[in-house]
Amino acid sequence: MVERLLIDRLGHRGDGVTDGGGGPIYVSGTLPGEIVEVEPVLGQPDRRHLLHVKAPSTERITPICPHFGICGGCALQHWTSAPYRAWKRGLVVEALRQAGIEVPVGDLIDAHGEGRRRVVFHARRSSRDVLEVGFSAARAHQVIPIDRCPVLAKGLDGALQAAWTIAEVLVPTKKPLDIQVTATDAGLDIDVRGSGPLTAKMTAALIGVAARQPDLARLTRHGELIAQQRMPTVRMGAASVQLPPAAFLQATAEGEMVLSRLVLDSCIAAKNIADLFAGVGPFALRLAAQARVVAVDDDEAAIAALRHAAASTPGLKPIAAERRDLFKNPLLVQELKRFDAVVFDPPRQGADAQSRLLAQSGVSLIVAVSCNPGTFARDMRHLLDGGYRLGAVTPVDQFRYSAHVEIVARLEK
């Protein structure tokens, strides 16, 4: 059954929304003000599949990628820059408003730079026994084969070909193979997951693949080394960090630089800083140029990499890197007394337990970094209820064309 709908607004995931009598209806690939023809989506009564845009918005543009609308990676390549930027900033404003927080939110900073420096390709055999390597379809388990991706950084130019070559060796079946590729200063760092145990023949074939890929620095499977031609490293301030396999990095190099600059500018007068959820040290290694730092994270490999980078970089003030699960075992009020600033950058679930304890502390400065407006607003609510004053809130866009937004906020007590 074909329906005709008027799109009222854009939802927080980038889908067009029409507010029908039975609740909102979501249509991906549409823009506010458009009249569209749609059909039902089986098993999803609140969604419709776009058939045709009858009356397009004046803000609609041609997407930069031929796979847009099929691949699930990008949501908003079809929207002009100004309303897109306003909408993405609005995600932060709305999340704060829903938490009862009314504060100025700065303009969105574009941190796409050269593009994304890490990517996960999926590989599987189709029902016709054809190997497919690419990205997942939107809200589906189907793999969309791709020949290129225009949002990736130049450092990943050889990544897709390497992923195809690896997939041809491992021959994925029903369960898809995940091939994570990171662009490093030494070349591609690739970690394969989902292959199952490797036979001696497969291992030998993968070693051969690595040897024939001049831009491949390291190949691992579930973090276990298969082949290494060079140690994958990235520069963080004055330090060079040797990355653990499948290490977390900010999506773009420019994004890391922007977030770090905002954090450092906020902490300029601090002498003793706690960097919580520190990862491999993008903030800690830069903060240590001006202050003593205690860096805490639950990832043992990340903490080891941070320790090594700190020890091998001259001119830094002391960095104490500690492994600790801040979700189960957050820093207590008594432990926080020695710091005049705390930086925290948790995963998407936020820092509920730690922010509650920070709210009770006497730390004079907190810099909060987040990739989720909802959990960010929740954590800010804890801190405000504890007597902190929320100052600058800055949204940062390193995931261009998506609904993801980073946030940096400064709080004082």
Give a brief description.
The chain has nine helices and 23 strands. The chain has 413 residues and is of the alpha/beta class.
Please explain how this structure is put together.
This protein is an alpha/beta fold and 413 residues long. It has three domains: 3-60, Nucleic acid-binding proteins (OB fold (Dihydrolipoamide Acetyltransferase, E2P), Beta Barrel), CATH 2.40.50.140; 86-112 and 250-412, Vaccinia Virus protein VP39 (Rossmann fold), CATH 3.40.50.150; 118-233, Beta Barrel (OB fold (Dihydrolipoamide Acetyltransferase, E2P)). 24% of the residues lie in helices and 31% in strands. An eight-stranded mixed sheet has the order 7-22-23-21-20-17-18-19, sandwiched between helices. A seven-stranded mixed sheet has the order 10-9-8-11-12-13-14. It has a three-stranded antiparallel sheet with strand order 1-5-6, with no helix packed on it. Strand 3 (16-20) and strand 4 (23-27) form a beta hairpin. The chain is globular and about 65 Å long. The termini are far apart. The mean pLDDT is 95.
Number of strands: 23
> How many discrete structural domains?
3
Look at the structure and give the mean pLDDT: 95
What is the beta-strand fraction? Answer: 25-35%
Largest sheet: 8 strands, mixed
Q: Using the coordinates above, name the CATH class of the largest domain.
A: Alpha Beta
Give me the CATH superfamily of the largest domain.
Vaccinia Virus protein VP39
What is the CATH architecture term of the largest domain? 3-Layer(aba) Sandwich
Structural class, from secondary structure content? alpha/beta
Global geometry? globular
From the alpha-carbon coordinates, what is the Rg to the nearest angstrom? 23 Å
Helix content: 10-25%
**Residue windows where pLDDT falls under 50 for at least 5 positions:** none
Side by side, the strands of the main sheet go 7-22-23-21-20-17-18-19
Distance between the termini: 58 Å
Number of helices: 9
Q: Find the CATH topology of the largest domain.
A: Rossmann fold
